[in-house]
Amino acid sequence: MIQSMTGFGRSEIMDGERKFLVEIKGVNHRYLDINIRMPRQLNFLETNVRNLLKERLQRGKVDLYISYEDLSEDKGALRYNEALAGEYLDYLKKIGETFHLEDDIRVSTLSRYPEVITMEDTEIDEEEVWNGLKKALDQALDQFIQSRISEGENLRSDILGKLDEMIRDVDYIKEREPQVVEEYREKLRAKVGELLEDDQIDESRLAAEVVLYADKICTDEEVVRLTSHIEHMKETLKSDGEGIGRKLDFITQEMNREANTILSKANDLATSDAGIDLKTGIEKIREQIQNIE
Fold first, then answer.
1. Do the beta carbons of residue 18 and residue 69 sit within 8 Å?
2. Single pTM value for the model
3. Nearest partner of 142 among 53, 74, 218, judged by Cα
4. pLDDT digits (tens, 9 = 90+) for 133-152
């Protein structure tokens, strides 16, 4: 199934007294590039989060945003550092003795010194937090992937339409070639007759010249190969394999090579126009393929 690399997914869930909000957005990229923004207290889960995304995504620049709230009442506890308070007190007494200052130390004053009394978070149950976060991640990823699939279907339809247009251009070039050769024959006949001022033209010499010209502008091989590439791309677009974007990109390069050769051999305006249309169509397809996973 074709997926675009552009998409968005969002999930917000309550798991017990924990609230998780996950947002995922993605754009096209040659490889899988994951950027994660999450609260510091969840950093221990970053490897789990990254591995989960790698299991479900192949390519794209993916930005993941996670917010987390613990709504329980016992999420913090006071801690008293008695040893540190004792050190502060000893130094304060020495300062008073050294500089003959009044000893006015109060409990309220000492308690405000750094690290004497601190608020510490209660220990996080890592397994429970991961289970809750994974639920939110899975929901957001499901939505994200579904949006990529929907966009992928739009890309598939658009590319198939452009391939049909290319087939029409290829068929026109194929049908046009005999007409171009015949037109060249008549122009050559008229030119030779004008130069010789005589209706007696060596038909064998004329035929040989026309054969050389026909061989020079012949695009039969290029047309066959280009048609094959177009059909191959259609089949690939209908397949469900992985890495479709890279396969399509390779096919596009091959199509472009054949179109360049056809255009270089074109020797009349109509064929040149059709060749330019082919090149334009291939470029449009290439731009669309850049967004396919």
1. yes
2. 0.70
3. 53
4. 999 999 999 999 999 999 99
